[in-house]
Design goal:
- The chain has 13 helices and 26 strands.
- The strands form nine sheets. Strands 8-7-9-10-22-21-18 form a seven-stranded mixed beta sheet, with helices on both faces. Strands 2-1-5-6 form a four-stranded mixed beta sheet, with helices on one face. Strands 11-12-20 form a three-stranded antiparallel beta sheet, with no helix packed on it.
- The radius of gyration is 30 Å and the shape is globular.
- Keywords: Membrane, Transmembrane, Transmembrane helix.
């Protein structure tokens, strides 16, 4: 009878274990007990991970001896990728130490540079001594015959290593999800790069276009044919999802403007980098060192007015600005020195919109003020000047002598001025209740829901050239500074065309606690002694109590 009960219990145990395994195999859940839910993947990231049907090999170059901040970045990267693997076993991860074989660090760094992956040099403070280490904060993901590079470290002007790591951890999920998105999904959306109205040359927007090609189909488009066959021009333009207008300098005809208007009415999206003032730094490089900033009329005023904005023909003079680089000397003795230049404002971000969340300051040159007007279109000011701004009317004489003059602080009282405004909603045609330049079938006076980004400086998208080759957008070769222009524009395009909701991951905020390095150095010996003595003391107390109660137990029995 007793043996029968044992068999019964054993059978129940076996059946229970089988049921538990079946449930575990079919029902999957993970608990995230962190306050900021840093290990809870967004729905957009999960959807991308679930679509990985073949092995993806991710090589992460964050293995080795690092400063504490970068060990935290490595650990957070490892834990995030473990979450990825938990949702899809096709994701394989390798952590690699590029310096494991004892090779020359500078030679390895040069190899990474040639592959387009810039190493990071970080200062290490330990026991009161400071040294410099090279870190390779990159990952490479391979999927079939496709490869993408994934940056893991975000640089921020003036940020400490702790701040850089905190910003980087906040963007880890977006960085890897974005990399997988480029690997596994074919390109679908089409972008028209506008030509024919004096836009920036191809060489000056080459870096950004090359980056866009990883996501979208890109083709040049001219409105010249609008003079002879505007209906066909509009039909061809409507085949694109977004138009990119990079600093036009020639006025638009009414036919061209109506084509743009009807493209918007049909739900087409636009990024317009346009200026109402003509001024270039190159114009100052003459014997007098002076030039005039003059109003520029592109014949777009009524178009933008009907959509709810106005770009004013004024210049933004901002104390928070990027320097101008001027040469001194000649021949081999030539030096390039930075000087304050208040017509190159560095943007501030008045909100945490996904486009601008956690990006570096965007550099403008001779930017104009944007007014927002009351209508039903939702307007979001993405970038603005600093509170220490002065608005200057045009015509205006500008001289290089300003670099040696102290600014009159009492005149910088105009406050923050909008420099980039996002418009979202249903737009009203600029030709509503007006005579149309030409007749088309199904002319629309109210748009379907769409988006438009207006930036009051075309140079935001302009990359410099070195020996005829384009440099990275936002990179200043003489100071080594990289501004946030490229990331800002790429985020804007992704926001407008992203069907996967991937850009929303950028709003995720993660708080990373760090040890105070000064206090750690001062109290190092105290905590070392405490870590050695306290465990031994606890062990001694436990041994004493164990012997005490054991002796007492056996004395009572005796």
């Amino acid at each position: 009878m007793k043996k029968s009960g044992t068999y019964k219990s054993l059978a129940i145990l076996i059946v229970g274990l089988i049921l538990l395994n079946v449930l575990a195999a079919n029902f999957f859940t993970r608990l995230d007990l962190t306050q900021d839910k840093r290990y809870t993947l967004s729905s957009a990231a999960k959807n991308i991970i679930e679509d990985v049907e073949e092995p993806v090999i991710i090589d992460v170059f964050l293995q080795g001896n690092f400063p504490p901040e970068f060990r935290r970045l490595r650990n957070e990267t490892r834990q995030l990728l473990e979450e990825f693997r938990a949702y899809n076993s096709n994701i394989k991860v390798n952590f690699i130490n590029p310096l494991a074989e004892g090779d020359d660090a500078n030679a390895i760094a040069q190899e990474f540079l040639q592959m387009g992956m810039t190493p990071a040099r970080v200062s290490v403070q330990e026991s009161g001594k400071t040294s410099e280490e090279i870190v390779f904060p990159w990952a490479i993901a391979n999927y079939g015959d496709k490869t993408v590079k994934i940056p893991l470290l975000k640089n921020t002007l003036g940020a400490t290593d702790e701040d850089r790591v905190t910003n980087s951890v906040q963007q880890l999920e977006y960085a890897f999800a974005n990399g997988l998105d480029k690997l596994i999904y074919p390109k679908e959306k089409r972008i028209a790069v506008m030509r024919g109205n004096g836009e920036l040359p191809d060489a000056n927007i080459a870096d950004f276009l090359q980056t866009l090609q990883e996501y979208y189909y890109i083709a040049p488009f001219t409105l010249d044919s609008a003079a002879q066959n505007p209906q066909k021009t509009l039909q061809n333009l409507n085949e694109f999802d977004l138009i990119l207008e990079a600093k036009p300098t020639e006025p638009y005809t009414e036919n061209e403007k109506f084509v743009l208007d009807q493209f918007t009415m049909n739900g087409g999206k636009s990024i317009c980098l346009v200026e109402s003032v003509a001024m270039e730094t190159d114009s100052l490089l003459n014997q007098s060192g002076t030039a005039y900033a003059l109003p520029r009329d592109l014949n777009l005023g009524d178009l933008f007015f009907s959509y709810g904005i106005r770009i004013n023909p004024v210049l933004i003079n901002d104390l928070y600005s990027a320097p101008i680089i001027l040469a001194s000397g000649s021949g081999n003795n030539t030096r390039f020195n930075p000087y304050p230049w208040f017509y190159s404002p560095l943007s501030s971000s008045p909100n945490d919109h996904p486009i601008i969340n956690n990006i570096e300051a965007v550099k403008f040159e001779y930017a104009n003020q944007i007014d927002t007007l009351a209508n039903d279109v939702e307007k979001t000011i993405l970038l603005s000047s600093s509170p220490r701004t002065k608005v200057e009317g045009t015509p205006l004489q500008i001289s290089l002598e300003m670099v040696s003059q102290k600014p009159q602080l009492s005149t910088y009282t105009d406050g923050e001025q909008p420099l980039a405004v996002l418009l979202e909603g249903e737009f009203t045609s600029a030709y509503k209740n007006r005579l149309k330049p030409f007749e088309i079938e199904n002319s629309m006076e109210e748009s379907t829901a769409t988006k438009m980004l207006v930036i009051s400086d075309g140079d935001v998208i302009k990359n410099d050239l070195q020996r005829g080759a384009p440099l990275e957008l936002g990179f200043e070769r003489y100071t080594g500074t990289t501004y946030g222009n490229k990331e800002f524009l790429l985020n804007a395009v992704n926001y407008m065309l992203d069907d996967n909701g991937l850009i929303e991951i950028r709003t995720k905020e993660i708080s990373i606690p760090f040890l105070d390095p000064v206090r750690t150095a001062e109290e190092r010996e105290k905590w070392q002694v405490a870590n050695l003595v306290i465990p031994l003391l606890i062990l001694a107390i436990f041994a004493f109590l164990f012997n005490f109660f054991r002796r007492r137990k056996y004395i009572k029995r005796a």
